Amino acid sequence: MKKFLDKLLSNESSSGVLLMLAAVFALIFKNVGGLSEFYDWFVHLQITMGIGDFKLDESLHFWVNDALMVLFFFIVGLDLKSEMVEGQLSKISQVILPCIAALGGVVLPAVIFVIINWGDPVAMKGWAIPTATDIAFAVGVLALLGKKVPTSLKIFVLTLAIIDDLCAILIIALFYSSSLNLLYLLLAAVVLGAMIALNKKKIFNKTPYVILSLILWVLILNSGIHATIAGVVAAFTIPLHTTPGNSMLHDMERALVTPVNFIILPLFAFVNAGVSLKGLDAGHLFGTVPMGIFFGLFFGKQIGIFLFSWIIVKLKIASLPENANWAQLYAVGIICGIGFTMSLFVDGLAYGEASIELYKGTDKLAILMASLISGIVGFVVAKIVGRRKLAREAE
């Protein structure tokens, strides 16, 4: 049983399935009599945390989105640092194609959303919603495909998703931060400097990094920059190499990846995906915002990734991943339309709880539907083209 559980927890596809189940349960709870009241109570449950006079009294929704999700972004930051120092992002030759492809997967979805929503300043706040790719889901779908997708293409998608996350972090920092408080920013810079100094002095005790990271989160939370950025910034100060054969960075990543993937992200999906379907009509479902999100994720992602990849390869600046063809690359481009976690997160920053009043929650429904359809269609297409390629190689 223990071996089965270890295998289950280490399986990326299991994390993706759990995320989807959490979203489905959120929809059920929000739309079934009796359960709906419990769901609203749960999401808005007030929780007080703090020491002495310093206390935060906020809803569960806040603690999940602005506190627990910091750990998710911390892992993203750890992964980015590791890849930049010694992984896929450390060699320019390995980065060019996925980097340009990721750019296409960010630009075209945003352009599609902007075209559909042009002239509506409130709707335009959501331009970045369809630019994201959910790593857990995308890698999970690829895991289900097995040998029908070459290893080189899986590495391409993983690298693309990492760069996509970096783009999302920059977008959140630059476009979804409120008015800045210079005092808190200055204090945050001092704390960050102290963490960098710990790294330079080769202090390999985790405790001071954890304490300073918590202080950094509080300061950035009050600075006007979104609190999750604290997770990314703190991650880059964590030492990669400590004693020979050991790594504080990888130790922290291993310790956090299971609770983040199997507790925090499903909880995030549950508290953010609950949309009431009562009173919805065609006018709501086919409004400009849900259509911009859906077309951006499903069509914008696949076309943007493929088009930018095709251009960079035809210009002979990069080459296709080893043993992969154009049909397979297009198939994984469809899979990258699974926005889910990051798209829901950006949606919350763009519209907040006002999305219920403005769009009856159809913005979130569009994310869920586009992600689901991208996953299913991408899986089917990748399986078909992969099977054909294997058949040709066997002849």
Automatic annotation (TrEMBL):
Reaction(s) this enzyme catalyzes, per UniProt: Na(+)(in) + 2 H(+)(out) = Na(+)(out) + 2 H(+)(in)
Keywords from the named record: Antiport, Cell inner membrane, Cell membrane, Ion transport, Membrane, Sodium, Sodium transport, Transmembrane, Transmembrane helix, Transport
GO molecular function, one term: sodium:proton antiporter activity
Membrane topology (UniProt): Multi-pass membrane protein
GO biological process entries: regulation of pH
InterPro entries per record: Na/H_antiporter_dom_sf, NhaA
GO CC field: plasma membrane
Transmembrane segments: 60-80, 92-115, 155-176, 182-198, 210-236, 256-277, 289-313, 325-345, 365-385
Pfam family, one: Na_H_antiport_1
Compartment(s) of residence: Cell inner membrane; Cell membrane
Keyword Mitochondrion: no
HAMAP family xrefs: NhaA
Recorded family membership: Belongs to the NhaA Na(+)/H(+) (TC 2.A.33) antiporter family.
Function: Na(+)/H(+) antiporter that extrudes sodium in exchange for external protons.
Protein name: Na(+)/H(+) antiporter NhaA
Organism: Campylobacter blaseri
Gene it is expressed from: nhaA
